Amino acid sequence: MSIEFSRRDALDWIFFRRWRMEDGWLSKEQAGRALEVFHDRLAISMRKIVISKLYPTQGVFSE
User: Is the pTM of this model over 0.90?
Assistant: First the structure.
């Protein structure tokens, strides 16, 4: 597994666990009670947008 894939996967899991459309970022306590949304396409899209805006030169993480 490439390091880029591994990092992108780790970022996806942050979004799967913590990001919700209605609430935005869940707190640690909220995330502990929430259901993880595995392979949520919307969370992946949000990861791509956030990373591309924060790190525009790191295209590999916004794929």
Answer: no
